[in-house]
Specification:
2 domains, Heat Shock Protein 90, 6 helices, binds adenosine-5'-diphosphate, two-stranded antiparallel ribbon, 5-stranded mixed sheet
Length: 287
């Protein structure tokens, strides 16, 4: 009998241990299955992103080729139009026509400039710059439109002294595009806010949010608005946000779009902060 007394607890312990191990195996199997699922989704997303980049790169190359071909003759036409304008000062009817031609030429020149910016032809000039300087330059270009439309642009003062490490000209251009879109979206005397979002500061990125009181972006369009040539405007080129996307990535940041809870769009532009040991990474590191 002593032997059964001795073996019973052993068997129970073994069964318990077996159950524990089975339970743990089940958990780790479930965790592994979840991880495989997550990795598969990540892979699918990365493949899609890669395909998108390849498509954009070849589209950019083609567009840049066409833009270069157009730019030179367009410059000549612009020059001849300005010479004609000078000669026609005493013939108001003809002068009016030539002025219309010149306005058309300016529009074409700015579209060609947009295409080249989207194609990412420009070299990066990365330096330390404070957000205040970028916003000052961006507002110089956007305030006239805000004033004529009676729209207030409110800026979070916390942003101004933050130091970034980026191509200041390019980030200014990205800000201008976001602000102009916001101004175009706002109807009546609404507002545009530019503020800092403190999430993810640990990653060495500043998140600048550009929000407006406009109609917002229909959810089904959210994944299309960064595509080049996608526009819902009668006179839009659909290049503004494609350029912002391109610039954000070239500078080591990102851009995303969403809607505010109480209406209106919210764009988040992330740009590398200075002083995160990224100086050598970024300078000459992109493109
Ligand atoms: P464009 O301004 O020439 O249309 P963009 O690339 O700048 O080109 O914008 C693409 C589209 O994204 C716009 O046509 C519009 O539908 C949408 N969009 C951009 N910004 C906003 C905004 N602030 N509010 C609502 N929709 C926007």
């Amino acid at each position: 009998m002593p032997s059964t007394v001795g073996t019973e607890p052993d068997l129970a312990t073994i069964i318990q241990a077996y159950n524990d191990v089975t339970e743990r195996l089940k958990h780790s199997h479930e965790a592994l299955a979840r991880e495989v699922c997550r990795l598969r989704e990540e892979l699918q997303w990365k493949n899609k992103e890669l395909q998108r980049r390849e498509r954009l790169a070849s589209l950019g190359e083609m567009a840049a080729g066409v833009a270069h071909e157009i730019r030179n003759p367009l410059g000549g036409i612009g020059l001849y139009a300005s010479l004609l304008e000078r000669d026609l000062t005493d013939r108001p009817k003809q002068l009016e026509l030539v002025r219309k031609m010149s306005a058309g030429i300016s529009n074409l020149e700015s579209t060609v400039g947009d295409i080249l910016a989207f194609a990412g032809d420009a070299e990066l000039d990365v330096q330390r710059v404070v957000v205040g300087k970028i916003l000052q330059d961006a507002l110089a270009q956007t305030m006239p439109k805000a004033e004529t439309s009676d729209i207030a642009i409110e800026i979070d003062p916390m942003l101004l002294s933050v130091e970034l490490l980026c191509d200041a000209g390019q980030i200014t251009r990205a800000m201008i595009n976001l602000i102009l879109n916001a101004l175009e979206a706002v109807e009546g005397n609404g507002s545009v806010w530019i503020r800092r979002d403190d999430r993810d500061v640990g990653k060495g990125l500043l998140r600048v949010v550009v929000e407006d009181t406009g109609r917002g972006i229909p959810p089904e369009l959210l994944n299309r608005i960064f595509d080049p040539f996608f526009t819902t405007k009668d006179t839009g080129t659909g290049l503004g946000l494609a350029i912002v996307h391109r610039i954000a990535e070239a500078n080591g940041g990102s851009v995303s779009a969403g809607n505010r809870a109480d209406g209106g769009a919210a764009f988040v532009l992330s740009v590398p902060l200075a002083g995160y040991g990224n100086e050598t990474d970024v300078v000459g590191g992109h493109e």
